[in-house]
UniProtKB/TrEMBL annotation:
InterPro entries: P-loop_NTPase, TPR-like_helical_dom_sf. Keywords: Membrane, Transmembrane, Transmembrane helix. The keyword Zinc does not apply. This is AfsR-like transcriptional regulator TcrA. It comes from Nonomuraea monospora.
């Protein structure tokens, strides 16, 4: 029996019956449809007469009044329910690896891991490549938590062969595994408290596999009450003194012989037990090498163990294992051999099975992958992903015409996949795909000199990553993807794609509060378009933002916004919403300047006009269905109401903006709302200083290190916490350092003066 309920079965059958009936409607024709419709109306009328025939008149009058009211209320509730923002889909977590069958030779280490995990909570398993570190850790995790709901797994082995994942990337991967938004942190240490909160008292086991250095995970808590954390890998640096890793050495000879015999069968082992011992000695106790030799022998039943020993005798230790590997390669069929050579030469460490097929230019590569896996030449890792064994890294032919063509097919495959899934965001299936592939896509952008005619495909990959990283608020990764796209486009001579990449970097740097670097990228983008009339809309918008961040040249900003509006495509509702929001920001900035100069009535008029424009922008953002644009319009509306002295309305808009930013996981936007709210509270004589400090400290942890909002936070904290005024003064001035030596708007100059006067 399946788990489908009777109700679900009934709904399915009724739905199927309805679809079949609808499919036959065209056969009725117009006359038949009218006849059926008229008959149904007559039957409905007769049914109503029968129902209400004996009802008193007063009851009919009551129903006439109440039924429309009830129907209207019900309709309103249904529509309101559909208008409410749906809950964000859960973060995609990698499934836990299966339990290991026939576990051999590590019973003592397994018991020690379990004891350490039960006593200390966090345990580290360290071993050389091929020593079975991951296998042992997976088995121990199953022993600690046998239920799937209590198992959490993250594979930290990244797509770059030569560069391990950064601590921040590892922290983000762990947070996603624990169903926490990865974009909520800016430093790895920010994830420590979230890991404790997510695991404490749950009885769960978190397995972090393929850890390459302690620095990747030194931010983890030293203990999590009521949970276990298991770290497994080949550490290249020593952990701190309070951590005692469980070291895995070579397998004992008896365990190695048992492992090899499992692949050969008892009859073959009985014929030559001495040769079995010698083969295990050749493998130096490495489970990986023992399995590889065993698989080759299993595929070659006619080869005696002694003959292989004779071939290996007298060879240097470094050559003995390569000898078996090369024997395996020689036996490959042409398709499998071609795939192996291509995989070995890739700049990315692993790909999924569909990407492997794209490399070959065939519909499916399953048979070739199976053949390679049987001989231990590739590993099937992370579900349907394949990775060449470390012994063959970089073994492919470089820059041959066949490899270049294969790389082009791979890039186009990833572009198609990424574009398709980006269009489905934020659906859970799209999140799952990007969570698995985002590092691979970054490596595709950065891995090698771009192949000819791949510029558009690389641009599609970068566009998809921009959508994904914006959704997760991973601004560092956004900047890296845009930079790699710009490098590739410049190498290919594609000015249009390069301009897009430069503009993207400009926008990201403005968000992070670095106008100097933003202007440099803007200038590079502008240099690719000599005539202003030929600029794309995004370039005009970036120009307006650069001008606004670099001074108070309001006419120039206004001109740039006009050109932006003219460059927008017809019917671009979102673009018009962005334009109006920027127009309103310009009006409010000008109003602030006039107010500072003692021209209050003129400033109030500008703030009133900005409020009108923002309501229009808000309406367009809703029609476009863009949460980020709606949140930004709400945030600016709150400021407009605040400048007009309408604190209550400002608070309502701030609450709504914060809710929208939270739903979009935009921590920087949410932090700005907290700063605005703190500013409103500070103008209230009866404000609670501790509540304001709490808001500001929460905002500080989410804001970038530079920018006006960050400087404002430190100014407020310096005034509220006099004992730390010097510390906040220094941090506030550092937040304004990107404007050192360049033109700056009046609000930056005023902030700098206030900080220096503390």
């Amino acid at each position: 029996m399946t788990d489908i309920s009777r109700g679900e079965r009934l709904r399915f059958r009724l739905s199927r019956l309805y679809r079949r009936a609808v499919a036959h409607l065209p056969e009725l024709g117009v006359g038949g449809a009218l006849t059926v419709g008229g008959t149904l109306l007559i039957l409905q009328e007769e049914l109503i007469k029968q129902l209400i025939g004996g009802w008193p008149a007063w009851l009919l009058i009551v129903l006439v009044v109440l039924v429309p009211l009830a129907a209207g209320s019900l309709t309103y509730l249904i529509r309101r329910r559909h208008r409410e923002a749906p809950p964000r889909p859960a973060m995609a977590a990698m499934p836990f690896p299966d339990r290991i069958d026939g576990f051999t030779g590590r019973d003592a280490e397994l018991r020690r891991i379990k004891d350490e995990a039960l006593e200390h909570g966090v345990v580290v398993v360290h071993g050389g490549i091929g020593m079975g570190t991951s296998t042992l850790a997976i088995q121990a995790a199953w022993e600690l938590a046998g239920e799937a709901r209590k198992q959490r797994y993250a594979d930290l082995r990244g797509p770059d062969r030569d560069r391990p994942e950064t601590p921040l990337s590892v922290a983000q991967r762990v947070l996603r595994t624990l169903n926490r938004p990865p974009g909520a942190i800016q430093e790895p240490q920010d994830a420590t408290a979230q890991v404790i909160e997510a695991l404490t008292g749950t009885g769960q086991v978190l397995l972090l596999d393929n850890v390459s250095s302690w620095s990747q995970v030194d931010w983890l808590p030293t203990r999590v009450p009521g949970a276990h954390v298991v770290l497994a890998g080949t550490l290249t640096d020593a952990p701190p003194q309070h951590v005692e890793p469980i070291h895995l050495g070579p397998l004992a000879p008896e365990a190695g012989q048992a492992l090899l015999a499992r692949h050969l069968g008892p009859e073959r082992v009985a014929r030559d037990p001495k040769a079995l011992e010698l083969l295990v000695d050749v493998c130096l106790g490495s489970p990986l090498e023992i399995v590889r030799v065993g698989r080759w022998l299993a595929r070659n039943p006619g080869v005696s163990l002694q003959s292989l020993v004779d071939d290996l005798r007298g060879r240097p230790v470094a050559d003995t294992l390569d000898f078996v590997l090369h024997l395996s390669v020689k036996q490959l069929r042409p398709t499998a051999k071609q795939l192996f050579v291509l995989l070995a030469g890739l700049p990315i460490a692993e790909v999924d099975h569909q990407a492997a097929a794209a490399l070959l230019g065939v519909p499916s590569a399953s048979d070739a992958i199976g053949e390679l896996a049987d001989l231990g030449l590739v590993e099937n890792v992370r579900m349907t992903r394949v990775r060449v064994s470390s012994a063959f890294r970089g073994g492919g032919a470089e820059d041959s015409p066949r490899e270049v063509a294969a790389w082009r097919r791979l890039v186009e495959h990833f572009a198609e996949q990424a574009g398709s899934y980006a269009g489905r965001l934020p659906a859970e299936e799209a999140r799952t795909w990007f969570a698995m592939e985002d590092r691979v896509l970054l490596q595709v952008l950065a891995g090698r000199a771009p192949a000819p005619r791949t510029g558009r495909a690389l641009a599609r990959i970068a566009d998809a990553l921009e959508s994904w990283f914006r959704l997760e608020q991973r601004h560092e990764d956004r900047l890296r993807a845009a930079a790699e796209l710009g490098r590739a486009a410049e190498a290919l001579g594609d000015e249009q794609v390069q301009a897009t990449a430069e503009l993207r970097q400009c926008a990201i740097l403005l968000t992070s509060g670095d106008p100097r670097e933003a202007r440099r990228h803007f200038n590079r983008a502008a240099a690719l378009r000599v005539r202003v009339e030929s600029w794309p809309a995004g370039l005009h918008l970036a120009h307006a933002a650069i001008l606004l961040s670099g001074g108070d040249e309001f006419p120039a900003v206004e001109s740039a916004l006009v050109r932006y509006g003219q460059a927008l495509a017809g019917g671009d509702v979102l673009g018009q919403a962005v334009r109006l929001a920027n127009v309103a920001a310009l009006l409010m900035r000008r109003g602030q300047t006039l107010d500072h100069d003692g021209r209050g009535p003129e400033a109030r008029t500008l703030h009133t006009n900005a409020r009108v424009v923002l309501f229009q922008a808000l309406d367009l953002a809703r029609r476009a269905g863009d949460t980020a644009a709606e949140a930004h319009a709400r945030e600016l509306l709150a400021l407009a109401h605040h400048y007009l002295g309408q604190s209550h309305d400002a608070g309502l808009h701030l609450d709504e903006a914060e809710r929208l930013y939270t739903g979009a996981a935009d921590e920087i936007g949410r932090a700005r709302c907290l700063v605005h709210l703190a500013g409103i509270m500070l103008e209230d004589p009866g404000h609670a200083p501790d509540a304001v400090v709490a808001l500001l400290e929460e905002a500080e942890s989410r804001l970038p290190p530079a920018g006006v909002s960050t400087a404002l936070v430190h100014l407020h904290l310096a005034r509220l916490r006099r004992e730390r005024a010097a510390e906040h003064q220094e941090a506030g001035l550092a937040a304004l350092s990107p404007w050192d030596g360049i033109a700056e708007p009046k609000q930056v100059s005023e902030l700098r003066s206030l900080l220096l006067a503390l």
